[in-house]
Design brief:
Prim-pol fold; alpha+beta; three-stranded antiparallel beta sheet
């Protein structure tokens, strides 16, 4: 399956697509605040357009974009609408069977649903009730699931895409559509996680213990981030924190990471954002 094949399959099945970077280009073509195309080491994954606005189901536009090659098709998760107005939820397992292991550990089963094999594991596509406030947070699965969740203002790389390792994203069964997400999964995702393992210096900051000037404000700024603005607010706060480090102040990146996870970002996404902010500011990341 080529990128064009993948993009056409997606729009025929109602999944709005947009172009993402392709690792065969000389340098990353991705865009985004804090993203440096010249030094990008996560090739094949960054959007090349503002995906929340530039996604499409138009066959002509898709053909024009992807027939030229060297763009990976990606799915605008929040723009997808399923049966009865349901929203798309994608479970990203970082290894084969990771989500099945979580289900089995809880005495549950994992349904057969639309699956796209990735370089490390697989993306499972599911439909979830529209009223649930889902995002990239793992909820009660934090620390139990080897992977990530994508819903709302998010995207995933689609079938036909080329990974930097040379692996092509492939549909497990092109005839199998997404099914409704099991109740146990939805319950876990909307349950506030136990952050005992992440309660580090941001707790001491809240109590007023010794912290760099402004640290509590930056942590609170990240903690109060609404869905859709979490990553941008984290990047801004991390830039301010990195400036403090650059000028000889104390480093609060652990505080920001804990706050970002509590706000709903995955640990991987938050770590990447903080690293980008520190790199851009010239602090040691």
């Amino acid at each position: 399956m080529t990128p064009l094949d993948g993009a056409q399959w997606l729009i025929r099945h109602g999944f709005p697509v947009f172009p993402a970077d392709h690792p065969a280009t000389r340098r990353c073509t991705g865009i985004g605040r804090g993203h440096d195309s010249a030094t990008c080491d996560k090739r094949g994954k960054h959007p090349t357009v503002a995906f929340t606005r530039a996604h499409t189901l138009d066959e002509r536009k898709v053909h024009e974009t992807f027939s030229r090659g060297l763009r990976n098709p990606a799915v605008a998760v929040g723009a997808c609408s399923g049966p009865g107005g349901t929203q798309l939820l994608v479970i990203d397992s970082d290894r084969p069977g990771a989500i099945e292991d979580v289900a089995g550990a809880g005495g549950e089963s994992w349904p057969a649903t639309m699956r796209v094999w990735t370089a490390k594991g697989h993306h499972d596509y599911l439909w979830a009730p529209l009223h649930l406030r889902l995002g990239n947070g793992l909820g009660a699965l934090e620390g139990k699931f080897d992977g990530d969740v994508r819903a709302g203002n998010a995207y995933v790389i689609g079938p036909g895409s080329l990974h930097a390792s040379g692996v092509v994203y492939e549909l497990d069964d092109p005839e199998r559509p997404p099914v409704h997400a099991p109740a146990w999964l939805l319950d876990a995702l909307v349950t506030r996680p136990n952050f005992a393992a992440h309660r580090t210096r941001w707790q001491r900051a809240a109590r007023g213990d010794a912290q760099p000037r402004g640290a509590r404000g930056l942590v609170a700024f990240v903690l109060d981030s609404p869905q859709g603005a979490r990553n941008n607010r984290l990047f801004w706060a991390a830039c301010r924190a990195a400036e403090t480090v650059r000028d000889g102040g104390a480093d609060i990146r652990d505080d920001l990471l804990s706050a970002a996870i509590r706000a709903g970002l995955s640990e991987r996404e938050a770590t990447t954002t903080i690293h980008s902010a520190y790199s851009r500011t010239g602090a040691t990341a």
